[in-house]
Structures are given as C-alpha cells and as structure tokens.
Amino acid sequence: MRLHLTRWSGRAASTPAARPDQPCPRTVPPRGAAQDGAAQDGAGQDRGAAPVELAILLPGILLLLFASIQVASLFLARTVALSAAQQAVSAERGYDALGSGNADTGVGAQRAAEFIADAGDWLDPDPLPGPVVAPNGRYVSYTVSGTALSLVPGVTFTVSETANGEIERFEPAGG
After folding, report:
1. How far apart are CA 82 and CA 111, in angstroms?
2. How far apart are the C-alpha atoms of 93 and 86, rounded to whole Å?
3. Helices (H) and strands (E) in the chain — how many of each?
4. What is the DSSP letter of 158?
5. DSSP bridge pairs for 15
6. Distance separating alpha carbons of residues 51 and 44, to the nearest angstrom
7. Neighbours of 94 (CB within 10 A)
C-alpha cells in the first residue's frame, strides 16, 4: 500500500493509493478539521453542546426522581397504615374481645402499634384510637392515621386507612 499526501485545510493527510481494478477511494478529512467554518465533532453536533444540555435537563431529571421516590414513600405509608388497621381488627374481632369484658379491649391498639414499630419509619402514627363497634354489635372497625415520610422539608402528607371485620360469636344452629 502506497501513501500519498492530500492537501486539506492546510494539513497533510495520508490515503491509500488507488489500484487499477478498484475505484479511487474517497479522501476523508483528518479528525478535527474545520468543515463549513464551524468546529464540529464526528456526530455532527457542535462541541460543548452536551454539557449545556445536561445542565438544562438535570434539574428536571432530579425533580422527577425525587417525585417518584416521594410517591413510593406515600404508597408505602398507606400500606403500613392499612396493614396496621387490619392487624388491630383481627385482634379485636376475636371471640368476645369486645364483649363482656373477658378480654382486653386494648389488644387491637397494642397490635397495631407493634406492627407500625416493626414496619419502620414510613408512617409516624397519630395517637391510636380505640375500635369502633357498629350499633348492632356485629362489626368492628379500626382507623389508623398518621404522617407519611416526606422528602420535602415543611411538607406533610397525611395518611388514613380503615379496616372492618365481623366480630366472631357463637350462634345457635339453624337460625
């Protein structure tokens, strides 16, 4: 392969010599040579544009990232509140838990508080209220509310979830 010099923007570039059985190869300007009076990279974009674009887009990207984390935190807090309410109802609906005083009626609040403590810091609970029993005495409900973990200082998100269940009791057969 023979190399010969080609003149391009005042610089010398080497290209392979053409063989008689093949067409003449195109000459390619050396990397970094000026084209049309503007400095461009191999992809055809102006040099230095990528850092400027990143500086413009980065705040929006970070905002979307933190917003998605905040939404996930809010959903986790709701899940913790609902699960704690379900644990409380499950404890309170046990046979005679709310009946004649044979069982401790605070067992639901105790179980909900234990669940929230084991779940982590996703929910900062309000003081846990007692269970609500339907007027007919057949159903019990429990509401757990609190403040979700927040990434934004000074902004609070309140979460409240309720669970319901039928109180277990003996009934005579056939009626």
Report:
1. 13
2. 10
3. 2, 6
4. E
5. 4
6. 16
7. 14
In this predicted model, what pLDDT tens digit does every residue of 129-138 receive, in sequence order?
878 887 777 8
Q: Rounded CA gap, 122 and 84, in Å?
A: 12
Distance CA 46, CA 72 (A): 39
Per-residue model confidence as pLDDT tens digits over 93-147: 876 666 645 455 678 888 999 999 999 888 888 888 878 887 777 888 889 999 9
**pLDDT greater than 70 at residue 1:** no
Residue 173 CB: number of other CB atoms within 10 A? 5
Domains of the chain: which residue ranges? 57-166
Identify the bridge partners of residue 132 per DSSP, sorted by sequence position. Answer: 141
How do 123-125 and 139-148 pair as beta strands? antiparallel
Paired sense of beta strands 139-148 and 11-16, if any:
unpaired
At 105, is the secondary structure helix, strand, or coil? coil
Q: Which two tokens mark 52?
A: 């400027």
SS3 assignment, position 90? helix
According to DSSP, residue 87 is labeled: H
Q: How far apart (Å, rounded) are the C-alpha atoms in residues 109 and 130?
A: 7
Give 149: exposed, middle or buried? Use CB within 10 Å, 0-12, 13-18, 19+: middle
- Residue-wise pLDDT tens digits, 37-62: 555 555 555 777 888 888 899 999 99
